[in-house]
Amino acid sequence: MMKLEYDIIVVGGGHAGCEAAAAAANLGSKTLLITMDMSKYAQMSCNPAMGGIAKGQIVREIDALGGLSGIISDRSTIQFRMLNLSKGPAMWSPRSQNDRMIFSKLWRESLEDIDNLDLWQDVVEELIINENRVAGVKTKIGVTFHSNVVILTNGTFLNGLIHIGSSKMAGGRIGELSSDGLTGQLSMAGFKSGRLKTGTPLRIDGRTVDFSNLIEQPDEESDYKFSFLPDTESKLKRRSCWITYTNTLVHNELRKGFDIAPMFDGTIQSIGPRYCPSIESKLITFFEKERHQLFLEPEGENTVEYYLNGFSSSLPWNIQYNALHKIPGLENAKIFRPGYAIEYDYFEPDQLYHTLETRVVKNLFFAGQINGTTGYEEAAAQGLIAGINGHIKCHSKNHEGFTLKRDEAYIGVLIDDLVTKGIDEPYRMFTSRAEFRILLRQDNADFRLTDKGYELGLASAGRKQLLDSKRELISEIMNFTNNFSVKPQYVDKLFTEKDTSLLKQGVKLKDIILRPQISIFDLIGTIRPFNKFLHDLKCINNKEVLESVEIAIKYNGYINREKALAEKLDKFEDINIDGKFNYLELKSLSTEARQKLNKLNPKTIGQAKRISGVSPADINVLLILLNR
Questions:
Q1: How many CB atoms lie within 10 A of CB 184?
Q2: Is residue 83 predicted with pLDDT exceeding 80?
Q3: What is the Cα–Cα distance from 567 to 561, expressed in whole angstroms?
Q4: At a CB cut-off of 8 Å and minimum separation 6, what does 455 contact?
């Protein structure tokens, strides 16, 4: 007989739900993952890509902790790029183009291969809540499952409403049902909810595209990938993306639909993502621009379906179609379906602890777009943290749970922003949100987080062993560069080619690497003893290790300065203020600070100082009162 009792139930099979279920089960919790459609695990509902600016760092952090998004991204890659290589390493961001169908297929295979994890296809309509504690779920077909913990990762499905011009239909994605009932129940339990909007562009038949009028963006053919594990390379055929632009003819065609556009006629009143606006929003916000860049992205290794990145729209389908034909290269393009907007419910994330457990109902966790975020990567990161903490809640007396600080991970920045600041638009991660981004580079995510993942039991012993070996290699290379002297005659030719001043006397190899014009890879073929040393270490072709060495040398001053600042702020960061003040009675605080602190009840000074509306002067008041 099938058991209907679990440690943890995860509701929703998107990126957040998959990471949450995998983490909880791999840690040893008996876990059930409930989703509407078992053929669409971690579905790429929007563009078929992972990573990007700041998001790529998150994927590497998930991998370093022992999550699966990086591994599955690598194995389904059809193009990989390292963005921002012309800038400093804090800005380097990995991004993959993926086969959307294989990505989902690999997730299903991975989930099916996990012990302790059961899968169930159904719709959750109600939570079981006893004495302010969640105890299970009830489904649409009438099954009741009991559990100690429930993790909700409902994505855009909570009362989802799809808009295409004046047409609207209930749904969490095009062609899929919405999830109704949970918002009402949670609101009755005391949760505050709201509505947000996102959108997606039309899909194009590549057989009808004139690629000769587009700019090709080929695969970089580099060694970069997401996972720190060595055996995650993609076996798929590499595909190019293509660049084109809108023009005034396109814009004029789009404007013909503005009078009946749901964005402008009052039909859609919820807030959409400012950083990724619809094409109609771009025409209003950037009215002076005569063209906007578009990317035509393949949906898979062999499919002819393409995604038109930058052309998200909820205009009537015929307006979208006619405007498409004014775009260079797409004059005769056929479409598989038009773009659409979708409105959905979310819950204010300041109702969460940093563990992602809700403050209102015990043992209930939220992860992903239900918290007001957008993006696969942000969702997956939250799912991982919720899965870890759901397991801890079931099996450990460690009531603090597992959290990451802002100087430890972009994941820490993400969750801290959500919990302490809340949102007023769909939240997306940017490098600018991190105060310590030189510490939170994509190349050192394993150094920052794999030990933590191993201590939790999520990162494997093999992964830990790889990290220890990498640390040892880097240490040996650093020692060599600190001690080996280079005579001028060995580098004069290289320095002349690189237009950097010649040496007047011998210097340490480290001092040569410090020069901005010189790369460590330039020196491998120039300085034979260095070449031999790396060859003997068997890492002469290990680009990841050599880049880590170069970054550590070139940016040592910046790294140490940021570490010192983080340590200084840490002195105040963890000062406990939980339950120590009745904020409404502290007249020395500003009115806004009293209201915000009373509402959010931060546990530490660090959390308090990041609350919007709490000024440095208000923080000083709290520190003075604590000293008294």
A1: 13
A2: yes
A3: 10
A4: none
pLDDT over 80 (residue 50) = yes
Asked whether the predicted pLDDT for residue 181 surpasses 70, the reply is yes
- Helix/strand/coil for 378: helix
Confirm if 116 and 78 have CB atoms less than 8 A apart: no
Cα 527 to its chain centre, rounded Å, is 41
- Beta-carbon contacts of 217 under 8 Å, excluding residues fewer than 6 positions away, are 240, 241, 242, 243, 295
Contact 412, 359 (CB under 8 A): no
**CATH fold for the domain made of 574-627:** DNA polymerase; domain 1 (1.10.150)
Categorize the per-residue pLDDT at 278 as very low, low, confident or very high, splitting at 50, 70 and 90.
very high
Best CATH choice for the domain 5-199+344-456 from the list 3.40.50.1820, 3.50.50.60, 1.10.1740.10, 3.40.710.10: 3.50.50.60
Burial of 580 (0-12, 13-18, 19+ CB in 10 A): exposed
In CATH terms, 461-559 corresponds, of 1.10.10.10, 3.30.9.10, 1.10.10.1800, 1.10.443.10, to 1.10.10.1800
Is 3.40.50.1460 the CATH number for 203-341? no
Residue in 586, 495, 410, 517 with CA at minimum distance from that of residue 54: 410
Could you give the CA distance from residue 19 to residue 313 in angstroms, rounded to a whole number? 30
**How distant, in Å, are the alpha carbons of 47, 48, 74, 457, 596 from that of 102?**
14, 11, 11, 28, 46
Domain residue spans of the chain: 5-199+344-456, 203-341, 461-559, 574-627
| Residue 434: φ, ψ to 5° | -100, 125
DSSP 360: S
- pTM strictly above 0.85: yes
Please give the distance of CA 53 from its chain centroid, rounded to a whole number: 9
Return all residues near 539 (Cβ < 8 A) that are at least 6 apart: 473, 477, 545, 546
The total number of residues written for the chain in this structure: 628
